[in-house]
Amino acid sequence: MATVRALSLFSPIASAGAKEHADWLELKALLAADGDASFQDLVAELRRAGTLDGLSEGAALDERAEKSHALAEDAFAELDLRATMTGAGYPFSIDGQTVKRSKSIDFTSPYLFLLLLRRFGVSAGPRGVKGAGHFEELAEVASRHYLGGEAAGVRSYHFGFPRRTTQAGFEAALDDLCQMLGEGGGSRSRPSRRNQKDAKLDIVAWRPFLDGRTTKIIAFGQCAAGDNWDGKASELVPQQFMGMWLKAVRFAFNPVVFFFVPHTLDDEEWDSISMIGTTIPFDRCRIAGLLSASGLPGELSVRTARWSRYVLNRVSA
Question: Which end of the chain has fewer CB atoms < 10 Å from its terminal CB, N or C?
Fold first, then answer.
């Protein structure tokens, strides 16, 4: 049996910023025997790493202390913001200058999965649970919740390749999707169609009317699990996709774009996505908040727990 290589908790550098430092604190709390990580833990780690940028080797101790404390304050402000934005889906509590996990880790937590996916990558999990594909399935459920949920008739389709629950081939999947949507006319024949996997489209979600007619809210979703997410935010253009691959060229009402990342986004990153046409960003907090409101379907919850438990057990502090 192959040896499973251990993962290491990253050491935060001073210039990485509040988001990275907050991730470190959350992971530290998950790994700590007492289940918490403190302001002083981060300060000590920043000093130990020797990356307090902007100060010379001979900087006075009080200058270095002031900078490390300021960085830790920013990290805890970020944690407070995450707790507010995620709501009941946030698996930690903030108590003054300490972030705490529950005594028993909830491995079914979408937030925990997204944190581990962000820090250790799509290939960190066990065989049989593909990190990227699982992320897409979580995004699909979050899309349905955002549009009103199954009680409101919202439907969705996992189009990203490889497809686990829908038609395997590009042509067959597109025909199937158009039939379910009741518009689009099916797959358009092009010489390059045989080489297509998903043409950048990962999920589709829509809210139909009882009359079954066209002109309804449709969302095209794209998921970017890696560090190069910012280069993908503008790749999915619904009008281009429809013009290239649909017989009907377009839907009666142009789809909006949902863009999913397992990261937490600062204001500048948020604007860089939201200003791309009709694109709505979904970051870690939004996804986890939506999924915690109604819970995960049973089988998806089981796979989430399996992936997160496996990854966290590989991490050494």
Answer: N
Report how many helices (DSSP H) and strands (DSSP E) the chain contains, helices first: 10, 10
Instruction: For residue 205, list its beta bridge partners.
Output: 156, 219
Q: Report the distance separating Cα 232 and Cα 202, nearest Å.
A: 12
Using the CB atoms, write b or e for 271-295: b if 16+ within 10 Å: ebbeebeebbbbbbbbbbbbbbeee
Domains, the chain = 7-105 (1.10.10.10), 131-310 (3.40.1350)
Phi-psi category of residue 87: left, alpha or beta, with phi > 0 → left and psi -120 to 50 → alpha? left
Say how far apart CA 228 and CA 92 lie, in whole Å. 28
Question: Quick one: what percent of the chain has pLDDT higher than 70?
Answer: 94
* Separation CA 215–CA 295 (nearest Å): 30
pTM for this prediction: 0.92
315 touches 7 (CB < 8 A): yes
Contact 202, 257 (CB under 8 A): no
Which two structure tokens, joined as six digits, stand for 164? Answer: 């686990």
> In the β-sheet with 203-207, what is the strand arrangement from edge to edge?
155-158, 203-207, 217-223, 256-260, 279-282
Using DSSP's 3-state secondary structure scheme, residue 29 falls into: helix
Cα–Cα nearest to 71, from 42, 91, 103: 42
pLDDT tens for each residue of 221-252 = 999 998 888 888 899 999 999 999 999 988 98
Backbone angles phi, psi at 225, to 5 degrees: -90, -15
Q: What is the DSSP letter of 16?
A: G
